Amino acid sequence: MTVAIDQAVADFQAEATSGQQVKLSDLKGQQVVLYFYPKDATPGCTTEGLDFRARFEQFQAANTLIFGVSMDSLKKHESFKCKQEFPFELISDEEHALCDLFGVYQLKKNYGKEYMGIVRSTFLIDKDGVLREEWRNVKVAGHVDKVLAAAQELHKR
User: Is 99 among the residues known to form the active site?
Assistant: First the structure.
């Protein structure tokens, strides 16, 4: 079963950079942004991460944690995070369990080839663990501004 708007997100635990274990139930009281992206150190994924980095303090002011999620290894994540100076953690989902929970691991097509991969998507979870917003099949330009506006609005409630 995948997530649905206005429904509680099933508790999950995942490995992240900086040696962290991210468990959704431990994050209650804070809003959470999970942004799923295809691959570390690619142009679109780097731009998206840099956009989140540029607005990090604004997300913090809205009581919102940010986590990037891809199927890359923790070692690759650590390198990507360090090189781009991301102030947030990256979750490694090599077995795509989290991707499956959010329904973002899908059949993709590129230059006539079909393959399974992550469809760029972002999810905003409220302080009680309920999914409030989702953006699927995201185009990077301007996306983070939309997520920030939604996080700020949700924080006001």
Answer: no
Structural contact between residues 50 and 85, judged by C-beta atoms closer than 8 angstroms: no
Q: Which of 22, 32, 34, 45 is catalytic?
A: 45
**Is the distance from CB of 105 to CB of 116 less than 8 angstroms?**
yes
Q: Indicate the residue type of 17.
A: T
Instruction: Using DSSP, state whether 16 is helix, strand or coil.
Output: strand
Determine the pLDDT at residue 157.
86
Q: How confident is the model at residue 8 (pLDDT cuts 50, 70, 90)?
A: very high
- The SS3 call for residue 62 is coil
Whole-number CA gyration radius for the chain: 15
d(CA 9, CA 1): 10
pLDDT at 110: 84
Mean residue pLDDT of the chain comes to 96
CB-based contacts of 17: which residues, under 8 Å, 6+ apart? 74, 77, 78, 81, 89, 90
Contact 69, 49 (CB under 8 A): no
Query: Tell me, what amino acid is at 136?
Result: R
